[in-house]
Design brief:
There is one protein chain. The chain is mostly helical. 74% of the residues lie in helices and 0% in strands. The protein contains 17 helices and no strands. The longest helix is centred in the first third of the chain and has 39 residues. The termini are far apart.
Length: 420
């Protein structure tokens, strides 16, 4: 018999996930915490802990589809989409914003299918070897960082000489360490992030908004960019590359869901190391990582009884995970994923019509003002200082002609230090 209350709860979660995804700076973990706090009131109206858990889970999955929209059309990232800005916003400036969201949605939807196929083998592996994995996380992250730097050769320019790649590698080291020390300093002084409005402080907001949001927008402002008409173009990616990108994203998200503190962006970057890829392929992979990570955070809760995300932590407080509940929730994930796929592409078409009519310079200035206001609201004056410094550091990569992914040192260096 169909439980219509489950359908209503999943629909409510989908809407909440869409709201959090479309609102830069607002994360589904905020909704998870609020729903957990409000669960006694909700249960007094007849909802069970399982129903509340369904809302939280649906919101977590839904957000991974919708959060690409502000990253692509506005250039405003959150902690899960900081690398989506790079290829996604570039496609938007080519008039291919709807295509970028479709690629992102395919990555997310495809990763659900692939991740479900990986549930059994990965659950078996990590439930037995989780402690061994945790012992070498720091070494793995260090290897990834070194490989990123090793493969940095800068732009190909005639007549530069055979040793010019060393200059770009040195700049990559500078960006990685500078952003890494900034991240370490910020995380070691979390108590100084104080919201003047009494909101929950978000230390990563000024760091990531400055490194990957404001710096990108300032560079765009100085280049005199304008927004072209957004056309609903066909996909410019071969079927084989699309399938490979989905699989890599799903695998990356499935693995890092077991490792506390490692962000989906780091996993997406790691899956593409050593393999030449287009912006379209990277966009598919990082979207797949985000969704697979949300799915496997639930699986990790079942397999090792340890929450690996704010969503999983909230669900753990409400229900005891068992095999039957896990299967039911996987079905919910499939249904919410299918609905989110269609809704996110429809939303992208609306955004595309609106964005084409806007003055790009005013849009950038408006987003910069919004990021500044959010930083002040969530983290106070100390956060505003971190935001200003992060923005300066974030501008080094494009001005030096190196990949901006080196600024991921802001998250990687603190994790390397922690795990080593």
């Amino acid at each position: 018999m169909i439980d219509f209350m489950i359908i209503l709860c999943a629909s409510a979660g989908l809407i909440l996930g869409a709201i959090s995804g479309l609102t830069p700076g607002l994360h589904v973990n905020n909704f998870a915490a609020m729903l957990l706090a409000a669960s006694p009131i909700l249960m007094s109206y007849g909802l069970s802990p399982y129903h509340v858990s369904t809302i939280i889970l649906a919101a977590a999955i839904s957000q991974t589809f919708f959060d690409a929209i502000p990253a692509v059309f506005v250039g405003a990232p959150d902690s899960d989409t900081i690398l989506t800005v790079l290829p996604g916003h570039s496609l938007m400036l080519e008039g291919r914003g709807i295509e970028a969201i479709r690629l992102s949605a395919i990555g997310s939807a495809g990763s659900i299918v692939a991740a479900i196929l990986l549930v059994f083998p990965l659950s078996w592996i990590f439930s037995r070897y989780n402690d061994l994995l945790m012992k070498y996380v720091g070494v793995l992250l260090l290897v990834i960082a070194l490989f990123m730097i090793k493969t940095e050769n800068g732009p190909v320019i005639e007549g530069q000489g055979s040793l010019v790649h060393l200059k770009y590698k040195a700049m990559a080291v500078l960006v990685f360490l500078t952003s890494g020390f900034l991240g370490t300093f910020a995380f070691n002084h979390e108590s100084m992030f104080q919201s003047p409005l009494g909101l929950e402080p978000q230390p990563m907001l000024p760091l990531l908004s400055g490194l990957f949001g404001a710096s990108f927008l300032i560079i765009s402002l100085s280049s005199g960019t304008s927004i072209p008409e957004q056309k609903d173009t066909d996909l410019h990616i071969p079927a084989g590359s699309l399938a490979r990108s989905v699989l890599l994203g799903s695998l990356g998200g499935s693995v890092i869901a077991w490792i506390p503190g490692v962000s989906p962006s780091i996993a997406a970057m790691a899956t593409r190391l050593g393999a030449p890829s287009t912006g379209e392929e990277f966009l598919v992979s990082i979207s797949g990582v985000n969704t697979a990570n949300a799915l496997f955070s639930l699986v990790a809760l079942y397999a090792v009884d340890k929450p690996r995300s704010g969503t999983a932590a909230a669900i753990k407080e409400l229900i005891t995970m068992n095999w039957d509940i896990l299967v039911q929730m996987l079905v919910i994930i499939i249904a919410v994923g299918a609905a989110s796929y269609m809704a996110s592409i429809g939303s992208a078409r609306v955004f595309a019509r609106v964005i084409s009519r806007l003055n790009y310079r005013r849009l950038c200035l408006g987003v910069l003002a919004g990021l500044t206001a959010m930083t002040l609201a969530f983290t106070g004056w100390f956060g505003l200082l971190i935001f200003f410094i992060s923005t300066i550091v974030g501008m080094i990569s494009p001005l030096a002609g190196i990949r901006k992914t080196h600024a991921m040192g802001v998250l990687m260096l603190p994790l390397i230090v922690h795990y080593l």
